[in-house]
Every structure is written in C-alpha cells, then in structure tokens.
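FORM 7B - TANDEM STRUCTURE REPORT

SECTION 1: FIRST PROTEIN
SEQUENCE AND TOKENS:
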Amino acid sequence: MRILLISKNILLSTFLTLSFLITTAAFYNAEGTEPITDCTFCDKWRPYNSDGTTFASDDVFVVTRDSLALPGCSQAKARVVQQGFDKDYLDDPSKPLPIYVLYALNQEPKCKRPMPSVHSGSLVEVYVEQPQFGAGSERMELSIVETTEHAYGQRTPAKIRWYLIRRDYNPGDEGSGYGTDIAASIEHRKVDEKLNEEWQRLIKVAEGKTRAELIRRQRQWLKAIDKRCREDGGAAPQWESAYFTMCLTDAFKKRIEEFQDLRKCIMEKRTSCPALATDDPSVNNQDRR
C-alpha cells in the first residue's frame, strides 16, 4: 500500500512537471525553458510611450531578479513564473536573443496614479527586444497580462503596456528613424506636462465667461492641431510617427507661451487681452476679454 501511494505521488509529480514544461514551451514558442543566467535586463528603464495608462516623464521602471517597481509605483516583491529566449522574433542572429520573463507580484505596490490592474498576484511580462544598435539600445515592452496564453505569432494580450528604454540610453544619438521617434516621444512627454501645468495656472485666474471661452477655444485648438500635424506628415513611413510627435511638441511650446502671456494679462487686469488662438483663421483674434 505504501509503495503504491509513493508510486502515485511520483506519477502525479511527473505529470505536473511535464504539464508545466509543455505550457511554458507553448508560451515562448521556444525550446523548453532555458534559464536566463545573466540578468542583463535587471536595470532602470524609462517609459517613452504606453498603451492603457499614463505616466510621468520622471517615472522609472526598476527590475531585479526578485522585485519590480512599475512606472510610478513603489518596489514590490515578485517571483519569476516563466522565462526564456524568444526565437520566433529573431531579426539578427548575430545579436542577443530577445528575452521573455513573466513575473507574479507577491505584494501590491503603492502607485502615484490609480492602476486597478496592478495588485498582489498580477502577472507582469517583461519582453526585451534585440538591440537596435550597440549594447544597451534594446527596447523593452512591459505588460500587465491576464494570462500566459497567446496565439502563435502574436504578443500576449495586455491590459496595460509600456514601451521603455534603458534610463541611461540616449536614443537621439543614433540618428535613425528608431532613435528619433523615441527621442521625440520623450521630449513630447515633458512638454505635454508643462502645457497641462500652465493650463491649470491660467484657468485658476480666469472667471465666468472668460473661463468658459478659454475651455471652448482650447478644445477647438487641440482638435485642429492634431488634424494639422497628421496632414503635414509627408514623410517616409519610418519617420511619420516622429514627425507627427515633433509637430505636436512645437505647437505645444508655442501654446505654453500663449498661456503665460494671457495669464499675465489677466493678472494685471488689463482692459483688453488677446483671445486664445483656435488654429482656425476664421475665428482667431476676433474676441477680446
């Protein structure tokens, strides 16, 4: 009876081990679960774009073997659930293989902004692409995922996804579409934050009809500037995203100056202040406060 019980336990253990290996191999579409001995991705990374959540220009993602600090969140203990090298997304055999690492959070981090999808037990996928140029030029995709399963040839569906580069890497040095796009996104994030800050300062000093008119004109301007920047692209496909972002950034910088000048005018209680431009020549500069 004792021998039979031990045999059953051995069979059960073997079955669970095989099931885990099969599941992991399917997840990576790679050869088994080859362990990643060198934690080359253990570093500080900065987001430059995202799907599903916002982030601040000073946010940093910190990853170690047993902990994660998501963008805008405190460090939290985590454990590696799956790991491996991705051979299906291999562009250049001479460069290091892309890396998949799936973490499970052991505790809920404290975040500056609400993130309902982030809690104890959340699955966090770290995917590090091949370097575009030299060492340290890898791009990372950081995702909060619901499951480890995904269709062949497709990335795991994510509730939140950030795109990051190493904190000390300067993509603008590369002089390529890849580097320019990332550098443009980083600058745009900073200018966008400044625009929102100056907008809030302006709205605080405006009252009544003036405030309502400012809001109306700003909404018109945002729609118009987005349309104009999309139409003014005229670049090769690899440059379109960068040119669109740079167009918005330049427009935002000029808008910041408008906000500052108008706020000063209102604070000084001048009898007449210029109206905010709407990026529509038919209505610009017609109204006076």
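SECTION 2: SECOND PROTEIN
SEQUENCE AND TOKENS:
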Amino acid sequence: MSFSTTPQLDRRIFRSCSPRHVSRARRGLVQGIARAAQLLRVTPTLLATRPGRYIFAYHRILTPDEASQEWCHPSIWISPETFEAQIAHLQKVGRIVSLQSLLEDTTTPGNRFAITFDDAWADNYRYALPVLEKNRIQACFFVPTQAVSTGELFWTERLALQLGHAASSGSAGALIDTLCIPGEQAIATSPAGMLALVLDCVERLKLLSDADRDAAIADIARTLKLGAGNTSGRVMSWDQIRELHRLGHEIGSHTRTHRILQGVDAETVDRELQDSKTEIEREIGASVRYFCYPNARYDQVSAARVTACGYERGFRMHNLRMDAASQPATVPRFSVAEVNGRIPLLDWRLAMSGTG
C-alpha cells in the first residue's frame, strides 16, 4: 500500500524528513546521562555549586496507563507521583517562586525555580493544581484559546489519538504499510515501535506547509478509514482557567490555534498573538503579560512580534538557565517529563545546563 496517491504532495520529500535518526540519538543520550548520574550518585550538592534561575516547562500530568492510552509523546508527560516528588525536591535545593518574581528579581542568591504549563490540559487542573495549592506555589498556564473555547484538540494530538486507536482496533498492519519508511516496517511491530511510528508521522507532518499537511492528513484518513472519534474533554474550560486566575496563578497566551510560528508571515503571527491575548483578557478580566511559542519553535519574524503585540516576555525551551542576558522575547525554559525528570537525573541536567 502506498503512502498516498494525492497528486499535490510529493511523498518522497515527506518521507525524507523523518526525525527517526534524531529520536534514536536523543533516546541514547538521555539513557547515557541517566546511567552516568546513577554512577556518579549525583546529589543536591552538585546543583548547589552552580545555582541559577530555572523556568520549568510541563505539559501533561498523566499516569503511565493514561499516557499509553492517550498515545502521548514521552517528552510531554510526567506522572503525578514524579511531579509531586520534583516539587518537594526543588523546595529542598532552592526556592519555588512565581514567574514574575523569577523574572524581576535578579539578585537573590541560590537556586530559584518557576513552574509553567503549556496547552491548558485538563489533567493539569486534576493532578497538578492540588499539589500547587498544597505547597502554595503560583504557576503560569499558557493557554491556546481556540482549544479552550471549542473543547477540541490540536491536530497533532487528535491525529495521534486517531492513529493509535486504529492500531489498537485491528488496523496495525495497514498502519505500518501506510506510514512506515521503506525498510523500517519491522521497527513498528512492538507496542513501543507502534507509538514511535505514530509520533514520527505527526512530527513529519509538522514540517509541511498547511496545504500539504491538510492533504496528507486527509489522505491518511481515507487510506486507513480513520473515524473522527471523541477527542473532547482533554482541555480545560474557561471556568477552570478563571479559577486558576482567581487562585493567583498567571495566565499566559499560547496563540489562538496552537500554530507553529516558524516560517509564518508577520500578519498571521500578529493575528495569533493579538486574538489570543484579547480573548484571555476578556475571559479572566486581567491583562496577559506572557507568551509561549507552540512547540517551542519560532524565528526572527515571530520573535520580533511578541513585544510589538503587547507582551512583556516570550518563552522558548532550549533547556537553559535564565540570566541577565536573556532576551525578552526568547526567555529559555527547561523541558521536564517522566523520561528526564527523575532525581538525580534532574539535578544533573540543571547543574550542567548553560545560560541563554
């Protein structure tokens, strides 16, 4: 079975964009770091030798079973138990402060941490909020407004769920034939391989133009006879977001449609930034000061529009400590997930990080 017969999309280009080799290298690096951390018996004293300001970036808070059922990328979920253990640990090796305090106070010594969440996932409200409230921590939640208003998922998560459900319901063979790069079909025969196949497909689609991506998704849906499925209920409601604001948490923007702001014209960027800012401010009755790039991807055009659209700061990822030289539109954060967030690996990552 061929990937597609859709004439307007060159499938050779699509297949050549596979990040599979990058994913393998990344997995090997993370595993190597974990082994090194265990061998060295890294302790909080290592982190104390290089204190800094760190902004943590979380996405989903899920149990391992839930993450499996959601076909969730390993880099964006952490278990409730690991999250709570991290919070307790950070309070031992430093101080957790609000994002505003971390940004404005550049002189207080020692390790300081701020907590942020991307995408307004409902599991943040269910699992993370009780931990934050118990520890009196003010976090920042970056909200993609269209998903909150409609209750529907972004195309990335929606497609991953649809493909995952197809694989689980007896269409695994067709999925492998349709999506696999030639010669790599055997990789996808295990559950882990099937997850990698689904996630690789989503990552490759991100590299296409809007028109080509829409054509490819429609092609995949026809070939695999994907059903729409029920993908609602996974994003917070405006009532829940208003409650977060009432409890003292910061609400920031994550664009309107969760569009990746790379290779996009300034007019489109402005619309994403301004419309989301206006909508959030109307819903919570307060100004929105902070913005976060979807998928942590940006370019010179989108970075230049952040402050122009009325935001004080824009946030990327890049796993760096913040310092005085950090640019207002590209403040670095630290990605935290189950695969890279356990102690002592977390201490090792923080202590070895650079600044930006």
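SECTION 3: OBSERVATIONS ON SECOND PROTEIN
Confidence is low (pLDDT under 50) at residues 1-22.
Residues 42-151+232-352 form a domain with the TIM Barrel fold (CATH 3.20.20.370).

SECTION 4: SIGNATURE
Preparer initials: ____
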